[in-house]
Amino acid sequence: MANRVLLGKDGNGDYCLKVSASGANVLTTSNLTFNSLITDSTSGVTSTEGRAFNVIQSGVINGSGTTAATYSVQFPSIVDNSGNYSIPFVHALYEKTVTETNIAAGYYTGYGYHASGTYSWGAYMLLESHGFNSSGGNYTSGTQYGRLRFNASNPGNMSLSYYILAIPAHG
Amino acid sequence: MANRVLLGNHGTYGYGLYVSKSNIDVTGANIENFLFASTATNNNQLLLLEWIPITHGGSGTTTVTQQYANFNKDCEVMMVYTSGGEPVTAGSATDAWSANDFGSLFTGLVTLTNTKTSSSVGTLTLTATGASSYTLNPIIAVFTQEI
Q: How far is Cα B119 from Cα B1, in angstroms, rounded to an integer?
C-alpha cells in the first residue's frame, strides 16, 4: 500500500499536509488530492492558497401554491479582519414536478443577484451579504446574517437544494 | 465532545486522515458525515478565482488570456458571467465544470477554453465575438478537480 498522507515536513523542508491519489506515494508524487502548500504568484492572480470547497450551510426549500413567491434563508455573514463583508458562492439545484412522470430541473451557481427578476428554470436567485438577523429581519445587534432568496414563478411541487460555500467573492 | 479527527485506521475505510462533522464520532462515521477524507478522489481545492473582464469592440474576435499555476493538473473550470453584479448569460464554455445561463443575450458569442500549457502552467483563454460592442465581467474559478 502506498504512503498517502503526509503531515509534517516534505522533501523540500516545508511543513504541510498532503494527500496523494490512490496508489501514489505522497512522498514523491505530484498527483495530490490535497495540498496545503498551493500558492500562485502568476501575474494577474491573487493566490487562493488552495482554499477548500467547504460548505457553510445547506438545506432544502420546498415551495407551495401556484402564485409567485419568495423563499428566504439566512446564513452567518462572511466578514474579514477589516470588517468588510463578502457574499459567498452558492450552488443550488432546482427540481419541480410538472406532472407525475415529468420533472423539470436546473441549477443556479454563483454570486447571483438578478434584480430584473427574469425567471430561469422557474425561479431566480438573490443573494445579500449582510444586514439581517437570523430570522431575516433587519440587523440590530449580535451576529449579523446574510440572506439567500429564491423567487419562484410557480412554486408548487418545487424542491430546491442549496449549498452556501466558504468561497467569498473577490477571493 | 465527539472524536472528530482520525489519523490512522478507520474501521470501515482503512488508513487515512478523516474529519467528521460536529458531534459525529469520526471512528463510527460513514462517508456522508466526513468533512474531509483522504480516501476521496479529490478534495476540490480552489486554484484560481478571478474576475476577468473582456471588452469587445463589435468586430472580429477579442481575446483575453490568463495563466495560473496548475500543479500539474488538467483542471476543471467554472465560469459565471456577471454584468454590474447581475448575472446575464453563459455563452459557451469548453472544459467547463459548470456554467450559468441566465438568458440568451450573449449566447454563442463568448467562449472559454482551459489548456494545460505545461506541468506547472494552465492557460485560460476567453474570446468574444459579434457585431455589437459589449463588456462582460465573468468570474472564473479553477479547481484541482481534473477533467
A: 44
pLDDT at residue B10 is higher than 50: yes
Distance of alpha carbon B76 from alpha carbon B141, whole angstroms: 9
My answer on whether A105 and A146 are in the same domain is yes
Contact between A5 and B16 using a beta-carbon 8 Å cutoff: yes
Q: Which of A53, A78, A116, A151 to mutate to test the interface with B (most CBs of B within 10 A)?
A: A53
Is pLDDT at A34 greater than 50 in this prediction? Answer: yes
Q: What is the mean pLDDT of residues B47-74?
A: 89
Per-residue pLDDT tens digits for B70-100: 998 888 777 665 544 433 444 444 444 444 3
The answer to whether residues A28 and A86 belong to one domain is no
A4, A109, A114: residue with CB nearest B16: A4
Of B15, B43, B48, the CB nearest to A48: B48
Closest Cα of chain B to A98: distance in Å?
21
* Pair A31, A107 in one domain: no
In order of A110, B69, B104, B117, the CA distances from B72 in angstroms are: 26, 8, 36, 10
Closest CA to A146 of A84, A86, A70, A71: A86
Asked whether residue A44 is domain-assigned, the answer is no
Confidence of residue B15 (pLDDT cuts 50, 70, 90): very high
According to DSSP, residue B12 is labeled T
pTM: 0.71
| Count of the separate structural domains present in chain A | 2
Mean pLDDT of B51-64: 89
Residues in A touching B42 (Cβ below 8 Å): 33
Binary contact (B51, A170; C-beta < 8 A): yes
Of B127 and A134, the one with more pLDDT? A134
Sequence letter at residue B139 = I
Per the structure, the complete domain to which residue A19 belongs is given by: 5-35
Q: Is residue A48 part of a domain?
A: no
